[in-house]
Amino acid sequence: MSRFLSPRFAGLEAYTPGEQPRDQQYIKLNTNESPYPPSPEVLARLNADEVKRLNLYPDPEGKILKEKLAKLYGVEKENIFLSNGSDDILNFAFMAFCDEERGAAFPEISYGFYPVYADLYHVPHVKLPLKEDFSIDYKDYCDINKMVVVANPNAPTGMEIGLFEIEEILKANPNHVVLIDEAYVDFGGTSAVGLVGKYPNLLVSMTYSKSRSMAGARLGFAIASKEIIEDLEKIKFSTNPYNINRLTLAAGEAAVDSDAYYKENAKKIMATRETTVKDLKALGFTVLDSKANFIFAKPPKISGADFYAQLKKKGVLVRHFEKEKIRDFVRITIGTDEQMEVFLQKTQEVLADR
Ligand code: PMP
């Protein structure tokens, strides 16, 4: 910390992203990317002509992309907000809807960025424990008088919370935004987007980073009532109006045009997930019920930390969280069938050494 940094950030603990190593080629199952490339339409769109236009600013409103997404999700373009990855939505939401008095609530075990944004903006927050079985108890979020942030499916557990429970949370907090983070919804989850017309306090955030194979391009979007979107736009236009670059906007448009390709990939990932779960259970793993493109699993005979380290030595990268209650587990992103075969073989080798 330099002497120039405002003292208000002195205690801030920044978010630690998952490893993105460049030292060797790993079978990379640690940060929930899609193992499949962007669609041929996206690749074709990122051509020399598009690159030549980089001298020009992008459309700060992203009108074309909003129109396409609105059509895809059955809403109006005024219900859509575009962002630089969905982290950007979280950032804007904490900035817009919370302050020193207006707090936030989220699960104790969830996406690690929620408490960081809360700390960044000095938002008082409560981290609510999960139930014994790692599910979210919706009753904890009712009448809490705070912005609620819930990932559905949750990360790193992969477990789902139902729409009934989400509606109860929405009804119980009419004066606060309820942010449902649907980063992983396309792998068999249930989206709350259909509730947007009914609940003006609902904010659904989504990303191109997972099912749409564009983690490297940084594109996210939110769907919510027009009033919430207007608030987010106000904050965006007061901080970084060009938060999405031209190439990403173009790629995002082409990805909507090839929605069927991504749906097919999501199906493949779900099928691979089910095979992997079966194989791991046969080896003695405890595996939580996942609706995401990853699984949360506890290996037999070996600690989560050792399993992670041994696999890494063998060229397979998974994610381990050094956090009480979940340190026995690892989070494994679902790759291609071929990648998961290697993962399984290396897993068997690690367990055989015990
Ligand atoms: N929400 C959840 C639950 C996540 O796990 C992640 C990233 N891994 C994000 C949001 C943010 O993803 P991105 O910024 O790439 O859209």
From TrEMBL:
Transmembrane annotation, as ranges: none
Any one GO BP annotation for this protein: L-histidine biosynthetic process
Modified residues (N6-(pyridoxal phosphate)lysine): 210
Cofactors required: pyridoxal 5'-phosphate
Family: Belongs to the class-II pyridoxal-phosphate-dependent aminotransferase family. Histidinol-phosphate aminotransferase subfamily.
Gene Ontology molecular function: any one: histidinol-phosphate transaminase activity
UniProtKB keywords: Amino-acid biosynthesis, Aminotransferase, Histidine biosynthesis, Pyridoxal phosphate, Transferase
Enzyme Commission number(s) from the entry: 2.6.1.9
Protein name as catalogued: Histidinol-phosphate aminotransferase
Domain Aminotransferase class I/classII large: 25-345
NCBIfam families in alphabetical order: hisC
Stored Pfam families: Aminotran_1_2
Lineage, highest ranks first: Bacteria, Bacillati, Bacillota, Clostridia, Lachnospirales
Subunit structure: Homodimer.
Catalytic activity: L-histidinol phosphate + 2-oxoglutarate = 3-(imidazol-4-yl)-2-oxopropyl phosphate + L-glutamate
Coiled-coil annotated spans: none
Annotated metabolic or biological route of this protein: Amino-acid biosynthesis; L-histidine biosynthesis; L-histidine from 5-phospho-alpha-D-ribose 1-diphosphate: step 7/9
